[in-house]
Amino acid sequence: MPGVSLVAILDLKGKSLIQRSYRDDVPASAIERFLPLVLEQEEEGSYVVPCFSSQGINYLHIRHNNLYLVALTKKNSNAAEILTFLHKLVSVLTEYFKELEEESIRDNFVIIYELFDEVMDFGYPQTTESKILQEYITQESHKLEVQVRPPMAVTNAVSWRSEGIRYRKNEVFLDVVESVNLLVNANGNVVRSEILGAVKMKCYLSGMPELRLGLNDKVMFENTGRTSRGKAIEMEDVKFHQCVRLSRFENDRTISFIPPDGEFELMSYRLNTQVKPLIWAEALIEQHSGSRIEYVVKVKAQFKRRSTANNVEVFIPVPDDADSPKFRASVGTVHYVPEKSAFVWRIKQLAGGKEFLMRAHFGLPSVRGEELDKRAPITVKYEIPYFTVSGIQVRYLKIVEKSGYQALPWVRYITQNGDDYSLRTNVHAPKTQAGAF
To answer: What InterPro entries does the entry give (predicted)?
Structure first.
């Protein structure tokens, strides 16, 4: 790909906090035009696109917290590759400073300049593995120590792992984490659902081990003519860590790789299948003469009895001016969260097949109309260990290393709510004059 000319990190006012020029074909002052161009797009009422051009210069950018990361080039470059590089740069800087924000940049100018020199050479992305970079660019009280010779991994084909790693006890921990996003309408029907999955690993292995992971992958069973004893799943939008041999996966669906040392995400996937709500929640709302409002909330675990959901939180919206809360729950605890205009019902453990009720009462200082029908939906948070909603299974995890040591693989499954788990199941009872809490 044609190279990048300049990379900069800007604050929200468009001021350059730090920048590195890799070529001389783009003036450093060009970065000053970035924010005015962004504001121009916003004023026109259009979305701010991640790539745009002005005066022969291509601007590619991402936003992270209160920062813009911007790359400039005059060439017809691969936009996806440059944007991916900017996201990798965020990951590297976050690994170094824990939080990537304006203050951490001002405190670490020297080390960031050094990282800019290592992650890109003459505008071409180079090493972006933070674990390898930390071997020869170290951070001590904002002071920089640089080894004269970089580790072999920088020039090796396996750039994400150093040689000579040794552990007394060789272990691999593999977590299959699935997040469920869904939307239930007022009639109780699921109108949108998806499963987002990730296979996360912690590898504490000596040497340069070769790992092979087998899943109950439907495409693999079909390609090889094998039959699956259980359910086979069809994964979509599969993304792998760079350590996975893609050609091998495309040929026979084998996930073969030499892992990075420590913690990393091996792969992610999506299943666009219809999912029933694992935890159902609904509220019967009764408003009394505009002066007070009562809720009867039901929560039900719609999964098998042998599983248990941990740290369940049910958020029920209330009017912004509700006051004088009173709660009564058969299990768990209930708290009013006025800053979110909601109350939250917390249940530490919810066993499969169980259902519980709670009651809430609020005063309403002002008279209102029918706007309660347009309240936000109920949202639910939870985590179910030893369970996957898709039915994905690790069939095997083989570890081969030339020294022949024995390694212990540990596999764990977790299902949890996604970023959008919403139920519009607020049912409004007819208004009444009487009724005691």
So the answer is: Adaptor_comp_med_subunit, AP2_Mu_C_sf, AP_mu_sigma_su, Clathrin_mu, Clathrin_mu_CS, Longin-like_dom_sf, MHD
Edge-first strand order for the sheet with 426-428 is 323-329, 355-363, 292-301, 279-288, 426-428
Residue 368: predicted pLDDT: 58
- CATH number reported for the structural domain that contains residue 98 in this entry: 3.30.450.60
Query: How many domains in the chain?
Result: 2
Q: Write out pLDDT tens, residues 26-52.
A: 888 889 989 998 888 877 766 778 899
Q: Which of 121, 154, 187 is the last residue of a domain?
A: 154
Rounded CA separation 161/208 (Å) = 8
Let me know: does 295 contact 301? Beta carbons within 8 Å: no
CA–CA dist 178, 312 (Å, integer): 16
CATH (domain of 250)? 2.60.40.1170
Query: What span, in angstroms and rounded, lies between the C-alpha atoms of 157 and 162?
Result: 11
Higher confidence at residue 402 or residue 157? 402
Can you read off the two tokens belonging to residue 391? Answer: 């039915």
Evaluated on CA atoms 150, 152, 158, 163, the torsion sign reads negative
pLDDT for residue 145: 42
Candidate ranges 186-195, 359-368, 370-379; pick with highest mean pLDDT: 186-195
Do residues 80 and 180 share a domain? no
pTM: 0.69
Q: Give the dihedral sign, CA 134/137/138/139.
A: negative
Over residues 53-86, the pLDDT tens digits come to 888 899 999 999 889 999 999 888 888 889 999 9
What is the spatial distance between Cα 178 and Cα 195, in angstroms, rounded to a whole number? 6
C-alpha distances out from residue 55 to 9, 36, 58, 384, 426, Å: 21, 13, 9, 54, 54
